[in-house]
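Anyone? Bumping this.
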Amino acid sequence: MNAALRVETPGPLSTLQDFGRRGWRRFGVPVSGAMDPVALSIANALVGNPPGAAAVELTLIGGSFVVEGAAVRIALAGGDFPMFIDGSPAAAACSHTWEAGQSVRIGSTRHGVRGYLAAAGGFAIEAMLDSRSTHVRSGLGGLHGGPLAAGDRLPLGEAELAVPDQWLPPEHMPHAFPKVRVVLGPQDDHFTTQAIARFQATDYTISPHSDRMGYRLSGPPLEHSRGFDIISDATVPGSIQVPGTGEPIVLMADAQTTGGYPKIATVISADLPALGQRRPGDHLRFEAVTLEAAVAARQALVRWLAALPRVLVPVGRGPNPERLLAANLIGGVTDGDAFL
Amino acid sequence: MIKVQSSVQPRQRARFLPAGDAALVVELGESIDDVTNNRVLALDALLTGAGIAGVEETVPTYRSLLVAYDPGTVAFADLVRRLELLLDEPEDSVAAPAGRRWSLPVVYGGSFGEDLQFVANASDLSEEEVVRRHAEAEYRVYMIGFQPGFAYLGGLDPQLHLPRRADPRATVEAGSIAIGGSQSAVYSVACPSGWHLVGRSPVRVFDSRREQPFLLSAGDRVRFRPLPAEAWEPLARRADAGDVVAEELPE
């Protein structure tokens, strides 16, 4: 019997996500995919998968899973979620091999929003439109087009388990830039000079009305120079629309493919994954950079991802992941539930 | 293939605008019209044919083309130069895809189009006249967006142009035929809408079970064929079973 993960309790918004759908935007299909593709890549590297293999994206609260059929190797990366295997704490950013019948419980995140639970061999689920990513609004992808439900059985692909578990030492984690960097445009000419300056000087708050489709931001309104309607044109994840209220909306992974509000700027691709870990109530600031700087940041991230499998350390050699785990457990009370 | 008609206005200069570090927008005009939209579709076809390394996907819209690319393979400036060369092709050698012509069956009014009477009152016409005018027009698919397979249809009779509802509905059924502003649309999946519902088609413009999940593409043309309410059940059953139900019309 092939190994599988059975979902006992799914968490409030647990979906399967990979790197998303490419090539279908011309038909109105959102890219979707992991909100934090860097964390997805880390979870996959830890279990020996290609970086974009589908994993379970957890949102704020984890869930519980049971191993069926055969042993599996799993890893959790991303937000700081406590994990317990048969009741004992287990380190994140570290792979673990479980035997059939063992259960894992994942609690509420203490920092960040999304966690990625990857399994060696990947989830053996049919792709829809070239991706296993779940887009809930259109019912595409995942097991049945929606969030995971209690009783769902996620079959796993074949995997090599006769290698030691491994972990990612914290000094190799990528560093998030303190500000969210953007490239101005494509419709920055629809805003006054003061609005462009204010956009970069404002301490924005992420509103509770934020989800995988977009983050609404609260702050002083930005002034349009010639109305807030444009002839609808294409958007990308990272597009920052400014509707009539003057408060920006950052489009995220599940963004609609077209829109009719002017877009003052676009979040650079290197900073979008970290933005995917910000939660309602968090503050953020934008900083405009040149296209050259944005491309350089993207290329640095591409190089980091390519090197990732080589910086992983087998468990039992070098510093011990359990020390990191002990540090995490002093993290304090969770406030994850407040935002659901 | 059809030829793009020459514009009477002088050709507008294209603008190349960055949409972040991995996409750019080629803006070819500032209005909703066939000439501009044809130029967008022609550039899209030429770009696809050119097979430029690093170009990942394109999204044609009313008046612009989004080009998603990998900046590690092709730089913004190089891509702009390639696009300028494509735009410099003589106007009448630029062939836009002809698009296909479709006839979609529709049951108008009643529970299938609950705003038909409102639209009739607002446009000072009888319900029959609204249906006649809505079904007589040939619509152009200007672009696909908003949701999978959702087609923005231009060509609505001016008498039927109406502002959106003040209070959007939380959900309208897939297949709903609606009027919003100067446009009409076929809803591809159930979703919220502020447009006025005049009818419903059993045709699924998006069905992930089909080899071609999307019925309509930018550049296609659409007509609506009114059906009596009794015709709904058998057609809906065929659509449930995976039949396209829509008819493709000859050129």
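Late reply, but here is one note on the structure posted above: Confidence is low (pLDDT under 50) at residues 327-340 of chain A.
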